[in-house]
Amino acid sequence: MAVTAKELAQMCGVSRMTVHRALTDTGRINPQTKELILAKAKECGYRPDLLARGLVKGQTFYIGVVVLDVNNRYFSQLLSAIETEAGKRGYFVNITLHEQNKDMEKEQLERLVDYHVDGIILSSVNRGGAYKEFLKSLDTPIVTIGNKVDEGIPFVGIEEKKAAREATEAILRKGYEKIVFVCPPLERKDENTYVHQQRLEGFEEAVSLWNGGKTYRESGKVDADGSGGRRTQAECIVIDKSEGYDARACEELYNTDKRTAFFCTGDMFALDIMKYMSGRGQKAGIDYGIMGFDGIDILDYVTPRMNTIYNPVEQVAKEAVKLLFKLMNGEADGDESVILDCEMMAGETL
Q: Are strands 92-97 and 178-183 parallel, antiparallel or unpaired?
């Protein structure tokens, strides 16, 4: 049976307050007494009663995390980094997955609040002013990551639009005449697709500039047209998964006389395309070009090395935890944002 703080105090011949000061490294205490208490605590296998401590301080030493899933390596890496950072602060992490279900996300948030977690990190599928008010009504510190819910909600993200614009420019400079932009569905009513919308806007900006400022959108596709001066005119098409997209749809778009590249808003989309095209005898970087986004760790095992944009997922996690603890400690206001830069990673697929 584990020894208690009271029993530890009796063993050392000191008060419980002195034991508390030694174990928490707070208050004034004789160095020799502190050394004695710590040695005895280690010898007896003393473990602090976090529940009792939490009741005294009004804390549970848990934070909640709500994300899409763990099948995507980006989220797996994110969760691992969040747990590491929270652990450094003596906290545990309660992880829940909303699976892109807006109602499920709300239920999970309410349940985490019912369990009195001290704060929450959220990658939301909801958005807008009404949802912003819902989050505020929970009366629990919340930091959003990736998808921005609304102004006035603490947020940690990356320069999505800038990164996509620079990546598109890099593809165009390689001389590709046709770019297929691959992304998840963007037109679902009220669903938060902020991340991929930002990447689409960066793509469109680059195409517009390249083609003399002339672009138009029609029927869910982006087509670019214009004189383009000395540059090669680029035909650019956006496809998403809203109508049963799979890699074969990309092959149909690739089947053209124009030199074609794919720009995917996630590395997993790009890997799907590479796998399918490889089965058809087409090799990335030779028969077509491809660019991913996020720089997930499994790319280290993929040949040829994929060109992608490195999304600093570990840094996003660190900043999210840091901001959440500032909110929990009353050291930050309710609308602070942290935006991180990201960079392209060289590869062999363009």
A: unpaired
Distances in whole angstroms, Cα of residue 36 to Cα of each of 8, 39, 45, 191: 11, 5, 14, 58
101-129 residues labelled b (16+ CB within 10 A) or e (exposed):
ebeebbebbeebbeeebbbbbbbbbbbee
Question: From CA 253, how far away is CA 249, in angstroms rounded?
Answer: 7
**What is the structure's pLDDT at 248?**
57
Q: Which two tokens stand for residue 270?
A: 């790009």
156/147 Cα distance (integer angstroms) = 9
Instruction: For 234-260, give one letter per residue: b (16+ CB within 10 A) or e.
Output: bbbbbbbeeeebebebbbebbeeeeeb
User: What tens digit of pLDDT does each residue of 232-291 get?
Assistant: 445 555 554 444 445 555 666 666 677 888 899 889 889 988 988 888 898 999 999 999
Domains of the chain (ranges, CATH numbers): 5-48 (1.10.260.40), 58-158+313-340 (3.40.50.2300), 160-311 (3.40.50.2300)
Q: Would you state the pLDDT for residue 336? A: 87
Residues in the chain predicted with pLDDT less than 50, given as ranges, are 215-233, 240-245
- How many CB atoms are located within 10 Å of the residue 53 CB? 15
- Give the separation between CA 7 and CA 15, rounded to whole angstroms: 10
How much is the pTM?
A: 0.75
pLDDT score for 236:
56
Structure tokens at 185: 């569905």
Q: Residue 126 is encoded by which pair of tokens?
A: 């909801």
User: What per-residue confidence (pLDDT) applies to 302?
Assistant: 93
